[in-house]
Amino acid sequence: MDNLVRLFDLIVVLARRRYHAAEHHFKVLGLNHTKANLLTLLDREGGVATQEELSNLIFLDRSNAGRALKCLEEQGYVERRKNTGDKRTNLVQITTKGSKAVIDISRLKKRIIKSVSGELSDEQAGRIMEMLEKTLKAEK
């Protein structure tokens, strides 16, 4: 159990480091980590998704996701419109500017990963990833 407690604490420290590094690096694009993640996820979803789908993918409540998407819309990274199939939901579509930003975000993520991961090899990261994925599957 002591190792599990220590592991949990290390994950918290790593998450904080990642958060601060992301905030610092994404600032050059006028983004924070939440907005950068939303753009990346939207791009991964084929460029169009509902607000609810995005908030679920990022584990963010709908109101916070809505505020972040409103900022992205004001910055020209996304467009929002009513879903013709379901008037109660909004569709979010990435713009050309948003697609270009995703390329920059990807480049910056590589810098963030280098600054946070230290001397960890790709093989070691793969083994850790497998173990963490088992933990996530057990949670469901």
Q: Mean pLDDT, as a whole number?
A: 91
Fraction of residues in β-strands = 5-15%
Number of helices: 6
The CATH architecture classification is: Orthogonal Bundle
The fourth-level CATH homologous superfamily is: Winged helix-like DNA-binding domain superfamily/Winged helix DNA-binding domain
CATH topology: Arc Repressor Mutant, subunit A
Distance from first to last alpha carbon:
21 Å
The total number of structural domains is: 1
Total beta-strand segments: 3
Strand order of the largest sheet: 1-3-2
Structural class: alpha+beta
Q: Low-confidence parts lasting 5 or more residues at pLDDT below 50? A: none
Instruction: Sum up the overall morphology in one term.
Output: globular
Order of helices and strands: HHEHHEEHH
Concise account of the structure shown:
This is HTH marR-type domain-containing protein. The chain has 140 residues and is an alpha+beta fold.
Descriptive report:
The protein has 140 residues and is of the alpha+beta class. The chain has one domain (2-139): Orthogonal Bundle (Arc Repressor Mutant, subunit A). It has 6 helices and 3 strands, in the order ααβααββαα. The protein has a 3-stranded antiparallel sheet. A hairpin with a 2-residue loop joins β2 (78-83) and β3. The longest helix has 25 residues, at 2-26. It starts with a helix and ends with a helix. The relative contact order is 0.12. It holds the Pfam family MarR_2. Residues 1-137 form the HTH marR-type domain. InterPro entries: HTH_MarR-typ (IPR000835), Tscrpt_reg_MarR-type_CS (IPR023187), WH-like_DNA-bd_sf (IPR036388), WH_DNA-bd_sf (IPR036390).
